[in-house]
Amino acid sequence: MTLTTLTVGSIMMRNYNVEESTSVDLVMEGLPASHPEVVQALSSTFLLPPSTLPYNLSTNTEYLASSQGDTWKFIHHYISKLFAGERGGFFVEAGALDGQQLSNTLWLEQELDWTGLLIEPNPYSFQHLQHKHRKAWTSNSCISTNQFTRKSVLVALKLRPGYISNPWYIKGSSYEFGVTLGYLPPKKSESFHYYFNSGDETYVPAYCFPLYSYLLALNVTTIDVLSLDTQGSEKDIVKTIPWEVITVRVLVIEIVVFDGTKDQRSSVAEGPVHMRRF
């Protein structure tokens, strides 16, 4: 069974300068997904175990009012229906943000005792994620768009002083440099332009690993829910999955298909057809 959900987004390419890193490379670029050095690097450095501390979730009224977003009810409804209260599952959520705001998986932990893997490349968001004490593995890295390790650049956004918006929506719009969201013709997405115009940019080096590498490091062969919100690289990530050895029961992908116009219903209907063309 496969679940696809859709939301809006956009990418604006800009010139950039990245300060040269003086840190020692933690893993070589261009190694295949199953290489022992890759699995070891993830196990020893890039994967942090589930917290044993009590949850440290925000109770701020304004924060909670925006924490579920436009697509959460849709995702929650269908995952609840598909799994029918099944307990002890395993999820992977890429684009985990702070682990609470816009999370597709927190309720699975809290209500059904699931665990999983939360991947968030933005180091600023990842710090907040750690403080939430999620009962899942966490990784401050990104998923590679091919079957090899890569070093990339994350365009990390934060709300610009003087602008009014949800700061987590801005941070959630951070993206890997060179990746664009795209949209379904003839629609054009304008919805996220305000987020990009409202955000200050920081360019951060990022290590990217194939999804299969994470699963090898965790000794996992079945993902019950795979949630991808990686600002444009979702389709390429799905193409890297070795389906002969990995089972994904439900796939949740957030992509651009409409701009909040009166035609959005027909656009959403077109979305799953579009996403099946992997």
UniProtKB/TrEMBL annotation:
It comes from the Eukaryota. GO terms for cellular component: endoplasmic reticulum membrane; Golgi apparatus; late endosome membrane; plasma membrane. It comes from Petrolisthes manimaculis. This is Methyltransferase FkbM domain-containing protein. Residues 94-264 form the Methyltransferase FkbM domain. GO terms for biological process: endoplasmic reticulum to Golgi vesicle-mediated transport; endosomal transport. InterPro entries: EGF_Rcpt_Signaling_Reg, FkbM_mtfrase, SAM-dependent_MTases_sf.
